[in-house]
Serine hydroxymethyltransferase
Amino acid sequence: MSALSSTDPRIAELVDAERRRQDEKLRMIPSENYVSPAVLEATGSVLTNKYSEGYPGRRYYEGQQFVDPVETLAKERAEALFGVEHANVQPYSGSPANLAAYLAFLSPGDTVLGMALPMGGHLTHGNAVSATGKWFRAVHYGVRRDTGRLDLDEVRDLARAERPRMIICGGTAIPRTIDFPAFAEIAREVGAVLLADIAHIAGLVAGGAHPSPVGYADVVSTTTHKTLRGPRGAMLMTTAEHAKAIDKAVFPGLQGGPHNHTTAAIAVALHEAAQPDFAAYARQVVTNAQALAAALTARGYDLVSGGTDNHLLLVDLTGKGVTGKVAAKALDAAGIELNFNTVPYDPRRPFDPSGIRLGTPAITTRGLTAEHMPAVAEWLDRTVTAAAAGDESGLAATAAEIRAFLADFPVHTPAT
């Protein structure tokens, strides 16, 4: 990064500081990961210089001789990896991808049935502060109070009563397997379009560590980072029947020219995800999450739904005498990065909730295995206990301990 250091040393300093931070901390936000050097190189390539409104073979600008093959490769690799008939790799991120699905199938005011945000859903699943909640009539389902698990009987009853035009399954804080066949059956019964939002679990689906929605959902949306280990972007995947509607919704419906450097990096990440070692990675992510869940449960932590089937854990800290926000701040200072998070039926405010959300995608990429999860649980417990007591005296020592530990698990990203 010599050019950046020479041109803008302050930004170069901040980038290098972020690189060191990512090296030295246990990064456990479930939506974060480390990309490969190849993905980084593609993201920073000269493709960022090119404007390409339209689709391969149908552009509004000349000079697409090399951009078209890049996008075609990304599209074909997505279709092969996920077993879909059509993929659109142009959405800028997960929220625009979901909005494009709305645009493709709905009209303003139509009813949408999605998971409530406090229960584990996403803002774009009809939350009141989102455009999806302002432009559409949103109805929400949740989880059972006694189990913390999705109640499909409630989903079916709501679908029959509200007759939604679209049903959404998936979310941001769901630690259990999503039953795509059951959602598809409900959607068919009420004549609704089924959107499967697999942004969090796309890498697990690609690696065979979570069931696929393909063949059940009418349209599948996903980000390309998180467990898929690609750049910050998104994709929409669907059947040939809906391909034209999806493509028109993305462009010209919502976007102008795609970000060609991101498209290239998506293509690289999809190529990497098609390799045999990626399936082993996906399985290890789940194994590590379940080992961490067991270690935390043994230390008296209350895990929403009692555990996990995938990459993330949602922990209610009420019984530990500390709020999620206070715990998250202390954990960050102690070298563990995660996020405070609302838990189902949380009596506290969203910006100061009762829970924390954590996951294993990034630490698994670094090479940690199930044998390391008891140590991670011990660092977590030590810090949460200190936070509950208002004692910050040992946080720096824990951070140093974690730094020394992670030195044996280097991040293979270029230094500045």
